[in-house]
Design brief:
59% of the residues lie in helices and 3% in strands. It has 268 residues and is mainly α. The chain has a two-stranded antiparallel ribbon with strand order 1-2. The chain starts with 7 loop residues before the first strand and ends in a 9-residue tail after the last helix. It is a multi-pass membrane protein.
């Protein structure tokens, strides 16, 4: 049986702080010093102060992009009929693909504003993104949402979720936390530690896009599709469909980066 978790982590007076919101806050707190360290590695890209300043843009990109992405990709007709529901973020509904687009736009604007190389700066930010992905999936699990497809009762870790009916299901949130979070974070930090990868601007960004697309597509085989969408043509899901352009963009960026000479300076 699914553990009896309280979706509210704690209260501050009348304010209820939920695990999902806490996951976002903790993610930014952990990721910030790591991003600062990555930006100081050769070739140096941005100062500590610039990384601090980018935090505001990153938060804005994640929240606005994630919410609008969910509205447009997963429930456009529902929100078109009830547009005020878009602002009810406390009811849930965030899309990673939308959040990714939001952060890309934030990176582009911030890089332009501060005269930084867009690809070089993006390369030093994306390695820490899996921290938020992993903690976010853990929060999904605590909330008992986004559960997996039916699983064999013999599977030791199969669970009966409160809103998933009486059948055992895959805890797909934990699968995603391990692959999109722990595994992808390990790959990205290892790659970022290699000077050859850092000196080819765009390679780390491409690796992240491709790595996430592979991890998410794999986990979608265990995750129950959204009820309002269901399965698409050929048994695919919306998550897998959205990962196709992400994977192609990632491969394109890596090829582009490897064909260019190594860079010793990240300044535009």
């Amino acid at each position: 049986m699914f553990p009896d978790f309280d979706p509210v982590a704690f209260h501050v007076g009348p304010l209820a702080v939920r695990w999902y919101a806490l996951a976002y806050m903790v993610s930014f707190i952990i990721a910030l010093p790591i991003a600062k360290r990555l930006n100081r590695l050769s070739p140096e890209v941005a100062t500590k102060e610039q990384v601090d300043d980018f935090l505001f843009y990153a938060i804005l990109g994640v929240l606005l992009g994630g919410r609008l992405g969910y509205v447009l990709f997963y429930r456009p007709m529902d929100y078109l009929s009830h547009p005020l529901e878009i602002f009810k973020t406390w009811d849930g509904g965030m899309s990673f693909h939308g959040g990714a687009l939001g952060v890309i736009l934030a990176l582009a604007y911030f890089s332009w504003k501060n005269r930084l190389s867009f690809l070089a700066f993006a390369d030093r930010i994306v390695p820490v993104v899996p921290i938020g992905l992993g903690l976010g999936r853990c929060a999904n699990f605590v909330n008992g949402e986004l559960w997996g497809r039916p699983a064999s009762p013999d599977l030791p870790w199969a669970m009966i979720f409160p809103t998933g009916g009486p059948i055992p299901r895959h805890p797909s949130e934990l699968y995603e936390a391990l692959t999109e979070g722990v595994l992808l974070l390990s790959v990205m930090l290892f790659a970022a530690s290699r000077p050859a990868a850092r000196e080819r601007f765009g390679f780390l960004s491409g690796l992240f896009l491709f790595g996430y697309a592979c991890a998410r597509s794999f986990c979608e085989f265990f995750r129950q599709p959204d009820a309002n969408i269901g399965f698409l043509s050929g048994g695919t899901t919306m998550g897998q469909l959205l990962c196709i352009p992400m994977a192609l963009a990632g491969m394109g960026l890596m090829v582009y980066a490897m064909r260019r000479p190594a860079q010793v300076s990240a300044h535009v």
